[in-house]
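Repro:
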Amino acid sequence: MSRQLRQKKKSICCDYVSFSQKTDGDMTNLNLGELDLTTDEFILDEPVCVINVLTVVFSVCFQGVDLRQYSKQVESELQRIEQASIKDYIKESQNIALLHNQITACDSILERMEGMLSGFQSDLSSISSEIQTLQQQSVSMNVRLKNRQAVRSHLSQLVDELVVPGAMISTILDSPVTEQEFLEQLHELNNKINFAKELSFRETLACSDIQDIVDRLKLKAVSKIREFILQKIYSFRKPMTNYQIPQNTLLKYRFFYQFLLANERTVAKEIRDEYVDTMSKIYYSYFKSYSGRLLKVQYEEVADKDDLMGVEDTAKKDILYTVCFFSKPSLKSRNTIFTLGQRGTILSPAELEGPILVPHTAQRGDSRYPYETLFRSQHYALLDNGCREYLFLSDFFMVAGNSALDLFNSIMGKTLSMFLKSMSTYVSDCYDSIAVFLCIHIILRFRAITAKRTIPALDKYWEAVLELLWPRFEMILEMNIHSIRNTDPQKLGVLDTRPHYITRRYAEFSSAIVSINQTFPNERTHTLLGQLQVEVENFVLKMAAEFPSRRDQLIFLINNYDMMLSVLMERAADDSKEVEGFQQLLLARTQEFIEEILSPPFGGMIAFVKEAEALMEKGQLDRLKNEEVRITQLVRGFSSTWKQSVESMSQDVMRSFTNFKNGTSIIQGALTQLIQYYHGFHKILNQPTFRSLAVRSELINLHHLMVEVKKHKPNF
């Protein structure tokens, strides 16, 4: 109904608007009288209607309409509308009453639902509080469970560690120590001993219940282990025993020593001292016997202080050195002083790490060996046993670093001292420089092997050996240098243009040292070899000066340089200092010799060519235009004698040089030089100054000469 009333009011407002639009007139006589615009019966809800009403009121006021009349008209209209509304309400009264009843029923239902929901809300609040209580109880129970489990685990471990099973007691008491079950129970016993010690520090009362049983089991285990290990150590002392077998057995039971070290240090020290004493005596005895038997298969004839490079060969009739190219040593089992021969193979990997010598086998076969072979065998046995012993000590006795080195030295120290003493005695009277140098390089390679194996036990010994050998080698080398420097050529017997035995000694020795020194270069060695080379070069020049003719001097120099170069190139590198030095000397003397042998048969032509070429450079060749007679003699003399001269020269060269290859090279060089001179002779005679000479027609064709010369080249 209120909605209908508002709609009616809106309609009246709209009518007022229409009326205001139709009314015209003067608004000056407008009298509002007692018009009350604030009545409560006239309420406009919408702002638009209010604006429209105001618009109508102002319009009426300004148009001169009587407001009382207009108000009454509006009032009557409102009453009419109100009556109509009442009729409509009465007409719909039943529906309104029905609607009222339905609303009342709905309110009752909603009230009951509200009551039910309130009850549910109360129940839910109660359930939520109960859930929170249960959750708190669950958390508390979980914490108690975890605490009980933690306590149970600790207590369970404690009980397990405190309990000494009967199986452990019977095994420790009755089972042999070599059985696996004994080793397992020993591990368990060791854990219980450690646990009991830990509990005793905490003053746990339960520890006292098992302490007596654990102590008695420990004493029994220590007794059985001590007896077992000492028995193995004593087995080393039996003759012909391979001590590596009991060592390997001990390594399988290395935990025994660990158990003793942790629980009975006195017994552990006793076993360690017993092992050190036993093995020290075994190694000393073995190596002393082995070294003594090795010396029995050494060469009987060894170098002495008179066996130097510059000593006259007839002093000992060359017993220790071979001069000739193809002769063999006079003794079947003899080592040479200056020649390496097959001695260098001792440094090859196959020989260096090969089986050691068996002295009694060598004696039965009547075999003899140089000192470096015995030295290699002796020190390879030391290296092999030393490395194995060091690894055993580190593993079984559980030592490392300086402790391991001290323990190793307490076992091997006596043996190493014996080695150094015997070597010092040998070295002090040794004059075999190649043997000493080979021993040095054997030690250098053995030191590299131990470094590769990461075994530092023998490092100090290697250094001590090198400190003995290096000074001796340098002293012997200096003695040889002085012997060559002080050599008197006039005391060396009959002069001979063939290679001298001293230069051959030097060549063999130098090539040996250079080839050995290539792997581990030593600057001091290079310096001493350089000094030796200088002295040998001076010696060769002094010997050459003893020959009366320059030709013989050159033959001697070339033969010796060629021999030394050939020997050096067999072992030394092509770019070594020694090889390059003798190559230059040989080339210079060869060129000089070629000029020397060309001079007798072709000296006139050569002198003329050199003279003419010098004048051509100065532009003064006309000074020789009056030399027609000389030129004619040269042309005709060459044409008539060159073949015989070349043949004679070739035969003479081949007779003069012991190395056929070198002689062939010299002949080829001489013939090549001859062709160059004759070619220069041709060029000179083709100059305008000599073109008018009739003798030019008698010149031999250069190409024909080359073809003929090739026929005279010897082939070897």
